[in-house]
Amino acid sequence: MPPRSIGAFAFVVGLLGAGLALTPSAARADGSTLYVNNTSTSNCSDSAADAGSQAQPYCSLQTAVDTARPGDTVMVVKGTFGPLDVKTSGTASAPLTITTGTSKVVTSIVTPLYGSGPGLTFDHVHDVALHGFFIGTNAQAPVVAVEGSDSVTLEGDHLEGVYSPSLVGIDGQSSTVTLSRDQLDSAPGEDGVDIAAGADGTVITGNKFSYGKNTPVNAAGAPGTVVVGNTFTDNGGCNTVISLTGASSGSTVENNAFFLGAPGGCATYGSSTPVVVSSGSTGATTFDYNVSESESGGALYNWGGRTYATAADLQAATGQGKHELYVAVAAGTTSLNVTPLIDSADAGAPNALSTDFNGKARVDDPLVADTGTGAGYYDRGAVEYQDPYQLAAAVSVSKGPAPLSETVTADETNPWKTGITSYTFDFGDGSAPVVSATPSVAHAYSAIGSYTVTVTATTAAGTSVAGSKKASVTVAAEAPLVPALSLGQARPHSSLTVQADASGTTDDWSIADYGVDFGDGTPAADLGTSGFGGHTYAKPGTYTATLTVKDDGGNTATTTRQVTVGSALVPFGPTRILDTRNGTGAAKAKVGPGAVLPLKVAGVNGIPATGVTAVALNLTGVNASASTVITAYPDGTTRPTASNLNLGPGQVTPNLVTVPVAPDGYVDLYNNAGSIDLVGDVEGYYSTTAATLGGTGFVQVSGPTRVLDTRTGIGTAKGKAGPGGLVTLTLPADGSSNASAVLLNVTETGATASSWVALEPSSGDVPTTSVLDFAAGQTSANLVVAPVSNGQVQFYNRTGNVDLIADVEGYVVSDPTTSPAALGSPYFPISPTRVLDTRNGTGAAQGTLGAKSKLSVKVAGHGGVPAGVKAVLVNLTGVKPTTSTWLSAYADGSALPGSSTLNLATGATRANLALVPVGSDGSIDIYNSSGTVNVVADVEGYYIG
Q1: What does the pLDDT look like over 442-465, one tens digit per residue?
Q2: Which of 190, 362, 532, 712 is buried deepest, with most CB atoms within 10 A?
Q3: Where are the strands (E) in 460-524, listed by range?
């Protein structure tokens, strides 16, 4: 990695060091202004006859400084320059000034990467001032070096280094060096100002220091050092701020603000303290009127070799620090507490500035008592707290039809009670500005358009104060108030939380207020003028929300919108919570005839203990001793007549069950006949409290769509899955782009051996749970909740060879950003309810369903399923077909899909859960391919929206 550098400056040094002779410019008098600008459009030259003029400035700053004479001003208009070595002096009465002519830093003097030496050197000169530059170096040298020089000044500059030992290095042969109103930003390990033994009269006044793991002011044997009115911010914690060692006597440290130990505070400075004055430096040295602010304690002073914890201790022992202040600040504070600084400094301190770091005059805060000396109202630190007077333009209405009468107001903040003599209003419509003695005026807009209003105040002192904020006025064509309300899922909140959005409301007036009654008996919510607000319903259901809109023209209008809230699906696992073969989740024993097995779901294996409304459980029956049916239902409720699992003797049969979870967290599993082992793997659960974030989301019903067939190469490579083999399904991008999981009807066929198929875990280990169990030669299907990773799902086959087929029935949508129009539907679980049984005429005519025939089943409005449902979860069972066949369930009124829901062998009875869209008439269709078969359908839940 390349080393860190100061900026990415493109240095065009030009003729520097090239050895080319320069043509001298025309004769001129001392006190001239020499212009410098090396930007591409400056027409600069270092050799032309008029080089240094405004029309043809110097390209090289070094050339300009070398050419200058006492009393000259080197005016740098703009540019980026290499290192500057100042060897030209001024005189006391005619100093040399090098300046940008502005308080803003627009020009840089930097030693480039891989260069050497300081950015700026005062090289045995005197009476030189430099103002307004950014100065830096990428070399291991001081940013500014003062060598054998005196009466030199850095004012209004910004200094920054990378590898420098210090920002300013003053050698022992220099004197009377002044740093004033400079910004000094030290990197860790980089001192601010290092003053060598022998240097005297250094003045550091009105500067801002930002530092970490270094010392901002380090005077080692430098008598007469003055450190007055600076602000020091410690970004590393536990650093010495000012160190006067050796023979640095006769020094002054006053009016400074020390912000110590941020971030993180500092409990102790160890052997050091923020302020160190050695025994050789205490003579005639003054230390007073400083403020120390810190998150935590620790000794503050080391004076003459002794440590003093507080200013009171220091004063009692030495007489110093009578007016010192210490302020404890809260942890994590990132700025100074201003109040202790105000009107408390010593205005008579040596070299105290009459204007602050920003050039602002000293002002008296009328709300704070004057506790300073001299003028009494100078502030400590580098910045003088100014009159906080502010004003902003405000209008009575932001929008209205033409002609529009407005009241325009100067909205004022005036804690100092500053006298205001007049206000000037500009209405932005081309009319003449209005000057008023009052802060409010009337104005009429006649033309349609958008206008910007500004206000300016004039104080009694004659100062003009511009408004900090403008106001906007829109004059619109006449139009009615038309309210609009949308209600959507408020991600990442629970599935019962909705976000109201009334921003689609249109009107020719600005809106005064939006209010929404969410239709659940709670008080109406005031959405103010934003039109946005959230609401959490207490329970699932369909509600009618009413929006009331009031505008600034006195008009009111309402509109309503229905919203349905229910459970969201949380893909989970697959995770085994039941296996009676080994005692997982229940006793280690088969479930006997007529027995009920209570199974704990909520609070088990990472499933939340509360908020779970239903569970998607892949339930497998193993080695039934007799033909039987298994029914799953909420614990503590009456067992329904519906079935979830149908088995013959010795069979291993799975089926996905979606069953409501009782308030106690249990579901019940009933075995009709014989004895049987049961295995349960959770593939997901429905919740009203889980945040709709990450994988949690609503089900987007898609209708059966084939996405995988290893027989033909759909969705993956063509060919059977071998023993221990993986099948990677790449889902269609238009459906899976924002899905966290997919509901797949997975079918196996042509198996060469009894086996099972599982979802491949991300770890790559052999799965411990299955989603589909089957025997050799069998064709069977099961609904699977499969997590989606990068648009893919992986299946694992345990033994033998088998073809896999998968049809998408829905997606779990958790991220609406990719496809916000398809956010999915909330789920409502119900206890399994039989809506069809052709054996006894439930839901259709009694009698078997013939070959290539279909029947329609009304689901909406029956068995607890309301009208208007989008889809139902149906456990579809085929009973003893006369030949091998398949069934397909789909929305009434739509075309027969090219996929099956249930595959049946001759004489078999088998069930499969399906997510089936509901037709506009509230019905679903069931189609039989071959022979005749009885059909049973049990609804386990429904989706709305």
Answers
A1: 999 999 999 999 999 999 999 999
A2: 190
A3: 464-466, 471-476, 486-489, 497-501, 511-517
